[in-house]
Design brief:
The protein is of the alpha+beta class and 431 residues long. The chain is built from 13 helices and 14 strands.
């Protein structure tokens, strides 16, 4: 079995072999439009979607231009004078994009209507007894323009190669598009190296980004008091961590807790995502199908939303392989890979061998995802489809020569993982 070197973030193996068109995404935020889909067959099943005059939660639809979801939530909470936990959302959205998403806010419609944030519009929908929860969406609709492409003639050939679906990698945004270090911080947390996790969050990474000079100085001097004066105010979360450490020397778990819980959980999730990507990459490198189930693979059927039903895990055996292969071909089930956690067990067969190889290389075990000192960051593990299909794809070449693609994807699926197959750019800043 081939054991290639672990690929860099965003440089995993392609499934399609046709030469890419190169180009660049997000030349402007309007080139990358994302709208949440909450209905399946014209029905929203989520409790928060049901209006109630007695509800405490204000359900709003927010359209934001060039806003990171976590920063937006922090700013709204600050303006309304409420805690960040009083605001919840179904999914995080990239900063450099024009996004529409649903939030629940423990505040009155009147106060919400008075909010005035740059490049943000807020539409109050109704009151609800239940808040929006992470994952309470069907998927996301995308409208994307690709700029600076060298040639568009190969698009159709690539799409033909991806007819069965594209590799369901976590996109580079999962790890930090500008400064990809979230998986590194997450690994430190799993290793219980909380001090290293904090220092990596504050001043790790190699990419030039906003505040890079302050990060570099802190890395060299370890002077937290000076850093508090030097770090730009826009780096809200970093400043909160630094401020905590100046008041509570070497309380690194407390520093991690200065982050919004959704964001700190994403650090550990990013490391799980890295492991998933490495296993998927190894499967492709070794020539094993990501569409057809192998003996020992696990299968997940679709749920009522058309997404993976995590409650039903079916092992592929010689007896049921043909039947399950038919279900996968019909789009009624997926071959899945492991996002490792406390309750995980290795898959059987080839997939299990790949999992063990990667986790041995990482020197990590399932039990490591029990984070005793910060229990809210512990993860039980789950499964993720190895591939995803592009739904309702339409594409054209605009008068300006830009390819324009419109499609939707199930929740948790990254548009960039599809688009990298089209573009095949080696420069991660293109995505």
């Amino acid at each position: 079995m081939i054991s290639p070197a672990r690929p860099e973030i965003g440089k995993e193996s392609y499934l399609s072999k046709t030469k890419g068109i190169l180009g660049k995404l997000r030349e402007s935020p309007e080139d990358f439009i994302v709208n949440e889909i909450i209905e399946n067959k014209h029905r929203a099943h989520w409790a928060w979607a049901q209006p109630s005059d007695n509800g405490r939660h204000s359900i709003v639809k927010i359209t934001a231009n060039n806003w990171d979801t976590h920063v937006l939530v922090k700013e709204i909470s600050k303006r309304l004078g409420i805690g960040q936990k009083a605001i919840s959302f179904a999914g995080t959205k990239d900063k450099r994009a024009l996004t529409t998403q649903y939030l629940s806010i423990l505040s009155s419609p009147k106060k919400i209507a008075e909010l005035d944030l740059e490049n943000v519009s807020i539409e109050f929908l109704h009151k609800s007894v239940k808040p929006v929860r992470l994952g309470n969406l069907v998927g996301n609709e995308f409208k994307i323009n690709i700029s600076q492409s060298k040639s568009t003639g190969n698009i159709q050939d690539i799409l033909e190669e991806l007819r069965g679906g594209f590799p369901n990698y976590f996109g580079i945004q999962r790890f930090g598009a500008v400064r990809p270090i979230t998986h590194i911080v997450g690994k430190r947390i799993a290793q219980k190296k909380y001090d290293q996790a904090v220092w990596d969050y504050l001043c790790g990474g190699e990419y030039e980004s906003f505040g890079s000079e302050a990060r570099s100085d802190l890395k060299e001097t370890k002077d937290l008091d000076a850093a508090l004066l030097q770090f730009p105010h826009k780096l809200l979360f970093e400043r909160q961590m630094i401020g905590h450490l100046t008041r509570n020397k070497e309380d690194y778990t407390g520093a991690i807790r200065q982050l919004p819980e959704n964001l700190s959980k994403m650090l550990v999730h990013a490391y799980q995502s890295l492991i998933f990507n490495h296993v998927l990459n190894l499967r492709i490198e070794n020539g094993y199908s990501i569409h057809k189930p192998l003996i020992g693979d696990n299968i997940i059927p679709i749920d009522i939303y058309g997404g993976p039903d995590q409650r039903r895990i079916i092992e592929v055996t010689e007896r049921n392989q043909k039947k399950l292969e038919k279900r996968c071909n019909e789009g009624k089930a997926w071959v899945v890979g492991l996002l490792p956690g406390i309750k995980s067990e290795h898959t059987k067969g080839i997939q299990g061998e790949l999992e063990r190889q990667i986790m041995n290389d990482e020197d990590i075990d399932f039990k490591d995802f029990a984070i005793e000192q910060i229990p809210e960051l512990s993860s039980f593990g789950m499964y993720r489809p190895l591939n995803q299909k592009i739904n309702d794809l339409k594409w054209t070449i605009e008068e300006n020569g830009k390819p324009k693609l419109e499609f939707w994807l199930h929740k948790g699926t990254y548009a960039t993982s599809f688009l990298r197959e089209i573009m095949k750019s080696e420069d991660m800043r293109a995505y």
